[in-house]
Each structure stands twice: as structure tokens, then as C-alpha cells.
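Practice record 12: protein with adenosine-5'-triphosphate.
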Amino acid sequence: MQKNSKGQIQVYTGAGKGKTTASLGLLIRALGAGLKVTIIFFDKGGNFYSERKVLAKLKKLYPKKLDYYAFGTIRMVKGKGFRFENINKDFSEAKLALEQAKKLSQNKTLDLLILDEINTTVKTGLLTLKPIIDLVKNKNEKLELILTGRYCEPEILKLADLVTEMKDIKHYMNKGIPARPGIDY
Ligand code: ATP
Ligand code: MG
């Protein structure tokens, strides 16, 4: 990033597919340019997210430039399906994720911080809006901040410099095709 350039606030939201993968694409581009990047996955416990396997390898290649954290419980249980209701651990994990995000948003050596699914946590009641707004408002000026997830709150949209809404025009899930490893997670 150009020295002293201001970091922008980007939001990827909407019901269409492509929010998390867009942020991962940006992560790769930024790494390629020598930027220092961290991604925090909110409410994404478990190890079935395929991108994490690559991030683990990339972290070894770029130990000083890349870091990632995942918080949350496992919601997908074999034979039982997806658990929508929150348990106590979901709340404590979301708090930990937010604390980590707050800390990193102040880090002057970091160029890009991605908060994956942070938007969704307000909708699902895991986090309140206020501390997220405070984080966005008080971030280190040079940090590029990405917030992903459906249902982005209007107050966050107001603070953003870029908002992309993934619009759901067609999705194979409506034909009954389930989420597929390597494509959807
Ligand atoms: P992606 O991670 O592919 O970029 P996204 O971040 O835009 O997608 P999310 O809302 O986070 O979208 O959903 C994660 C993934 O789960 C997406 O790839 C999406 O195609 C898939 N998905 C979402 N809802 C369903 C569903 N009801 N049935 C099957 N797959 C779904
Ligand atoms: Mg996503």
C-alpha cells in the first residue's frame, strides 16, 4: 500500500453467493503485493471450511504477512443438520472474535483486516451493533477494513467507502443442491 494512504472501509453484503470468496480473493491479491493481512472468521467454528487448509499453508509461506483466526462453535452436526439457535459458547466466542478484531484494527503494521461474517452476528444476536461501529470508527487510519456477511446494518453501510451487494438472481440450492465442499465451504 502506498505509504500514508488512507485505508478504506469495504462491505460485501447481500443474499447472493460470493462475499467470503471475494474477501479471500482480496487476501491473495494483497499478499501478492507484499501487504500484511489478517482474516478473522466470525461464527465459523469447525474445520470443514476448505479455505482454512490453504490459509494454513500460506501462513507457513508468509509467516510475517499472513494470519488468520476462527471463532465460533460447530453448528453443522452430522445427522442433525444446522443448528440455528445460539448456545452460551456462541456468545463467548463472538466476544473473543470481536476483541481480537478490535486489537488488530489498531495495529499500525497491519494493512488489511478482513472480518468475515461480522455483519451476520448482529442479525443473529451474537453481537450488538455499537461495539462494531466503534471498531470501524476508531480503526487505524491506514488499515483497509473489510466486513462481510448478509444483513449489513445501515449504520455500517453509512460508514463504508465501498459497498458491494451480492444479489441472488439464481442459486442452485433452490434446486435442492446442497452446499458442496470446495464450492460452498
Ligand atoms: P461464499 O463463501 O461462497 O463466497 P457467501 O459468503 O456469499 O458465499 P454465505 O451466506 O456466507 O455466502 O454462505 C456460505 C455458502 O453457503 C455459500 O457458498 C452459499 O452458496 C452456501 N449456502 C448458503 N445458503 C445455503 C443453503 N440454504 N443451502 C445450501 N447452500 C447454501
Ligand atoms: Mg460468507
